[in-house]
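User: As part of a screening pipeline, I want to sanity-check one entry by hand. Below is the sequence and the SMILES for zinc ion. Please return the complex as structure tokens so I can compare it with the automated output.
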Amino acid sequence: MDHKTIDIFGWIHTGGEARGDLQLAEMERLASLLADATGTLSWEARGWVDRAVGGDEAMMLQLHAAARPLLTCSNCLEPVAVDLAFDRTLRIVADEVSAARLDELDPEIDAIAGSRHFDLLELIEDEAILALPPLARHDQCAPPGPLRDDADDREELPTGSLAALASLMKGGGSGGQ
Ligand SMILES: [Zn+2]
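Assistant: Here is the complex for your manual check:
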């Protein structure tokens, strides 16, 4: 199955299910935002028809994906692995006009226009870009070079206050039960 040109209407009406792994490097727009495009994104898609009140049918598409791409740490500028995941339910409608009308009627519903040559992988890439954290930073990041040099020029941190902090943390961990 070519996930870049699916008949999304037919696929949803037959209860379509699909899954796959995408190389991050294959998604050029996403890859341009990463520190390094190595790695993969695992995705799953499911389609179904929701028969809403009044007999109107709604074509639904659920997308789930997860990856662990490398972004650039905002502090030290080295690569840092981040969790990228999304789980989105979208309503597929016949065309852009219907999508715009539905968005106006109910902003809670994310409606997008389907097509008979629908690029599912492009939609997955769009959603992955939206789900990317705007800023990445190592959990325990060393200060950038110049700052560290400044600190070395001064005296070492007062060990007394560090020891006090360490004992405080220790006490906090074991006490209170
Ligand atoms: Zn860092």
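Points to compare against the pipeline: Helices lie at 8-13, 28-31, 96-105, 120-131, 145-153, 159-174. The chain has one domain: 8-141.
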